[in-house]
Amino acid sequence: MTTTPPDSLPSSASSAPSAVNLHPRIGHGYDLHRLEPDLPLVVGGVKIDHDRGCAAHSDGDVVYHAVTDAILGALGQDDIGQLFPDNDPKWKDADSHIFFEEAVRRMGNAGYALGNLDITVILERPKLSPHKAAIRQNLDDLLGCDSSQVNIKAKTHERVDALGKTLRSPATSWCY
């Protein structure tokens, strides 16, 4: 995260360090949920038709959870579990965009804007390629950024271990 979006810097600032860009912040987020039969599968705010979904206190959106933690981590603030504990009934089945929006609000209040976001989702099936554009659009809308600032990669685990046997689904993200 930067204190000033790169496109708002004067052209003369592009070749020399600027005081507003001397303190970038980088955050890393990670989330993992079991995939269980007959639960909804929500990834990046997109409900995907599948026979398994994430077992979680909230909707279990691994992308929104990982990005929320990346933003909060970059800010040096409490993580998603501290702000929205899974033992608090008010967060039961909550839509994860609530958590994401709170992290974005905190980022703005601290004077930061997203530089870029890089997300990796590991999911054997269903394939995420048909859903990546919708996921990216949801992220762009919630972050108020351009799609060139968000990258989503979908990987499989080549049918190795619990990830490859479609028993779990993790996501990791980095923001700058």
Brief sketch in words of this structure:
With 176 residues, the protein is of the alpha+beta class. It is built from 5 helices and 7 strands. The strands form 2 sheets. It has a 5-stranded mixed sheet with strand order 4-1-7-5-6. A two-stranded antiparallel ribbon has the order 2-3.
Give a description of the structure.
With 176 residues, the chain is α+β, with helices and mostly antiparallel strands. The chain has one domain (25-116, 127-175): 2-C-methyl-D-erythritol 2,4-cyclodiphosphate synthase (60s Ribosomal Protein L30, Chain: A), CATH 3.30.1330. The protein is 27% helix and 23% strand. The protein is built from five helices and seven strands; from the N terminus they run E-E-E-E-H-H-H-E-H-E-H-E. The protein has a five-stranded mixed beta sheet. A two-stranded antiparallel ribbon has the order 2-3. A hairpin with a 2-residue loop joins strand 2 and strand 3 (46-48). Helix 1 (62-75) runs parallel beside helix 3. It starts with 26 loop residues before the first strand and ends with a strand. The model is unreliable at 4-22 (pLDDT under 50).
